[in-house]
Design goal:
single chain, 438 residues, alpha/beta, Rossmann fold, four-stranded antiparallel β-sheet, 18 strands, 17% strand, dTDP_Gluc_deHydtase, NAD
Amino acid sequence: MSAVESPEIDPTVPNGVKNRRNSTILNPRSSLTAELLKRAPVFLGSTNFEPLQDAKNILVTGGAGFIACWFVRHLVLTYPHNYNVISFDKLDYCASLNNTRVLDGRPNFAFEQGDITSPNDVKRVLRKHNIDTIFHFAAQSHVDLSFGNSYQFTNTNVYGTHVLLERARQHGINRFVHISTDEVYGDVPIGAANLSETSLLTPTNPYAASKAAAEMMVSAFRSSFKLPLITVRSNNVYGPHQFPEKIIPKFIMLLQRRKQLLLHGDGSPTRRYVYAGDLVDALDTIFHKGQIGQIYNISSKDEISNKSICHKLLQIFNLPHSTEAELEQWVQHTEDRPFNDQRYATDGTKLAKLGWRQKTSFEEGLRITVDWYRQFGEVWWGDITRVLTAFPVVEGTEIWTKEEHEALPSDEEVGPEENGVVWTKKALNCLQASGGTV
């Protein structure tokens, strides 16, 4: 099991249940109504290649999460007679079985709950489904959380990848595609050249460091055991189904609630964004045309600052933002991350030679995304109120605001309990000073 275990969840309990620790517990198994599921659009990529003869049973780790669920849907529905797809997911806070609910009952789709940090879980699923191909998406991926809980990122992203590689080596596979990130390159100064796949890795935050460390393990297994590995490094991905902890869906949901946007620092850092549908096409291209042993950047031409995202979303919502005074009504500057890279910049020439190109402009993709969240953002995961605060804290499927988590008692502070309520020493002192009793 991973270092932080999720609380036990009754699948019959509605999503977003508040518990006695003043937090929200999300239930990734909670299902939308049949009417809502019927209304929800089914998003895929657009590519369709000649199927590979040495790929039949494909394991997708993190398959109930954002990027992986797009790829799962694409493979299942585009290649119904060629590939069997097994979605393998721990069902952490940012996952939802609603993401692949449309596939339930299809003969070439199966879901298996399991943890990549459990050798037994991985061994079981590889044997049960006779897996010959692995797409490894599963990861702790939210940079903000990595500053406060870096152990969990190392455990999942490094050790989990190690477990998967070792079990794949023992089982025997034909192809292992490891999904990494452009953040492993580190900060790229303004005006500097785009970085190629051979550039030095200089990660600057715990998340990026864990992904770079995972890549070193991937490289070692390629060299030592000749495991058939491909590594993919993508720019930031956005689109429907992304858990609203990331900037674009979070800002959409805040505006939907007529709340201020919580902008880190001055909002000047930029990121390059690729729409999820284009990302799926890139992965499908790499799957069918990429070479074993290679690394591929998935690079976007759309480099957007965080502040520009505010302006673009305010424009879509028809809210005033042309003057600083108007902007202040809708944008609240919060503290920045302990370290925030100014920008990332990668060269996508290598992937372009395989035939991939970015099709969706940022403006088009953003409008599709906004429309989806307006319809489904409030119901897809359950109660996301605490997620929409500045720097929420997550453990398993349990979510607090930063302030609520800081107020939790430490192990040394836990005192008597009354009706399941934990009292801190400070609270007890205040109670006793007022003449009260526990």
